[in-house]
Design goal:
Strand 4, helix 5 and strand 5 form a beta-alpha-beta unit. Helix 2 runs parallel beside helix 3, helix 3 packs parallel to helix 4 and helix 5 packs parallel to helix 6. The radius of gyration is 16 Å and the shape is globular. The C terminus is likely disordered. The longest helix has 14 residues. Helix content is 43%, strand content 10%. The chain has a single domain, classed as Ribonuclease Inhibitor (Leucine-rich repeat, LRR (right-handed beta-alpha superhelix), Alpha-Beta Horseshoe). The relative contact order is 0.11. By secondary structure, the protein is of the alpha/beta class.
Amino acid sequence: MSDALIGKQIQKLDISNNALGPSGALALSDFLLQAGNLRVLLINNCGLGIDGVTTISNSLKSGTPNLELWAMSRNRAENPGAVKIGEALSGLKKLKELHVFQNVIRLEGMVAIVTALQGCPDLEVLDIRDNYVKGEAAKEMGVLIDKSKNLKCLNLSDCNMEKEENEFLIKAFEVLKYFFF
C-alpha cells in the first residue's frame, strides 16, 4: 500500500485503528520521507509501540513534511518514542494540532514534546491526556502556554498533575486575556 502512495499528492492520510505494528510503520516510511504535500496524518491506535513510533517520527524528521495535524494516540510510544516525536516536531513549523493521548509518556518524553512544541508558532490544539505532566514537564507546559498565542484547545485531563504542576499552569493562564475550556 505504501508504495502505491509514493509520488501521489496525498494531503490527508488516515490509517487509524489498523494493526500496523512496527513492520507497518517501516512500510510507511518511504512514503513519509517524500510526502511534502501531506497536511494531516492520523495514525491512532495502530499498535506501533516504541519501535513503530520511532520509525514514523524519524521518517517525518528526515522528510519534508508540512504537517498541520498529527495524531498518533494510543500507540504505546512511552518515553523513547515520545523523545523521537519531539525530535520530529522540531521540524514541523506549520503544525496546528497534535494528539498524542494515551501513550504512557512520562517526564523525559513529555519534556521533549512540550519543549519542541514551543517552536511551533501556529499551534492551536494539543491533546496529551492520559499521560504524565509532572515537574519539569509542567514547567515547560507553562512556557508553551505563554508562547502559544494561537492555542485554542488544551486537553490535560488525567495527567496526574498535583499542586506543584497546577501552579505552573495557573501562572501561565493568568497572563492570558481569554481562555475557554
